[in-house]
Amino acid sequence: MIEHNYAEPVSKLLTIGRPGNSQGWLDYQKMGISRADVPELIRLLKDKDLRWMEIPDDLLEEEDLTEWYGQIHAWRALAQLKAEEAIPALLDNLKEIDEYDDDWYGEDSFKVFPMIGPAAIPPLTEFLSNTDHGTWARVAASASLEKMAEKYPDTKGSCVTAIHAALEKYEDNDQSLNGSLISDLMEMDAAREYLGLIEQTFKSGNVDEFIEGDFEDIQIRLGLREKRSKPRSTPFFFEGGRMVADKNHPIIRNEIEKIKKDKRKRKQEKKSRKRNRKK
Predict the structure, then answer these.
(1) Are 246 and 252 within 8 A, CB to CB?
(2) What is the distance between the alpha carbons of residues 49 and 39, in angstroms, rounded to a whole number?
(3) pLDDT tens, 27-74?
(4) Which residues 6+ apart lie within 8 Å of 256 measured at CB?
(5) Which of 44, 132, 129 is nearest to 90 (CA)?
(6) Cα separation of 233 and 214, whole Å?
(7) Cα(50)–Cα(52) distance, integer angstroms
(8) Cα separation of 52 and 72, whole Å?
(9) Over the chain, what HEC string results?
(10) Within 10 Å of residue 47's Cβ, how many Cβ atoms?
(11) Is the dihedral of CA 109, 110, 111, 113 positive or negative?
(12) Where are the domains of the chain?
């Protein structure tokens, strides 16, 4: 255990425990937290010892320490306060998505940066362009820019430019990042403008087709193609935020045929049993 010396009301964040999902944030200003507390919130956000504090020997497996969630409440409070001065510390935490498989920040970041506002665009752009950062941290930065453009439509141009610039490095990017960048451009209705680059990226084979399908899927969604000319390389992909099975893919067709065959077999067996009972 470690000692904490955070001042009120920020210290209250260490006692709340597990937060709600991204749709159910607390109103931290109702807890008395204000702009005056921003420096203390940033100090909490940067407290690595607190984030990875040692687990007490007597803590049951199903129990949590409330302190573990203090930093999540801190970055949400900073977002609600639109604390632009916290952006560097928030971006530093973004790296932990890959370093520590941090799902909390990965999901929250899409909301945190747009809440702070357009001042986050230049640092997010710089972060996204840096190939030294982890794949999922860069995915989060791109998604944050996409959500920023949605919240502030007049920033769409700069957000699209940042994502396009990152996609131009497709040969050096991870497959998942390239798939996510293409997905963000699709969400921003900007894919048509960069269709040539998107096609090159798919031709390189360095795209996770599980995210948006393949290039023909992109063309169909953009109204540039009516139907597929060949089967997808993968039988599953995401569409409209949900996983979809390609019914025309050979693997799926074979599975469907097996199910139909089994169904016909069971139906025939049922008829046979009825005939036998009549005898």
Answers:
(1) yes
(2) 18
(3) 999 999 999 999 999 999 999 877 766 766 676 666 677 888 899 999
(4) 247
(5) 44
(6) 8
(7) 6
(8) 13
(9) CCCCCCCCCHHHHHCCCCCCCCCCCCCHHHHCCCHHHHHHHHHHHCCHHHHCCCCCCCCCCCCCCHHHHHHHHHHHHHHHCCCHHHHHHHHHHHCHHHHCCCHHHHHHHHHHHHHHCHHHHHHHHHHHHCCCCCHHHHHHHHHHHHHHHHHCHHHHHHHHHHHHHHHCCCCCCCHHHHHHHHHHHHHCCCCHHHHHHHHHHHHCCCCCHHHHCCHHHHHHHCCCCCCCCCCCCCCEEEECCEEEECCCCHHHHHHHHHHHHHHHHHHHHHHHHHHHHHC
(10) 18
(11) positive
(12) 1-81, 85-246, 251-279
In the block, tokens 């992109």 appear at: 218
Q: Using CA atoms, how far apart are residues 66 and 233, in angstroms rounded to an integer?
A: 46
Nearest CA-CA partner of 42 in 97, 87, 103: 87
- The Cα-based distances of 163 to 5, 156, 200, 220 in angstroms read 41, 11, 16, 22
Each residue's pLDDT tens digit, 148-185: 999 999 999 999 999 999 999 999 999 999 999 999 99
Using CA atoms, how far residue 43 sits from 32, 78, 90, 108, 205, in Å, is 18, 11, 11, 19, 43
How many residues make up the chain in this entry?
Answer: 279
Residue in the block written with tokens 């996770």: 208
| Token code pair at residue 115 | 């809440």
Q: Which residue has the tokens 């139909």?
A: 260
- pTM, two decimals, is 0.82
Return the amino acid letter for 77: A
Place of tokens 């507390």: 37
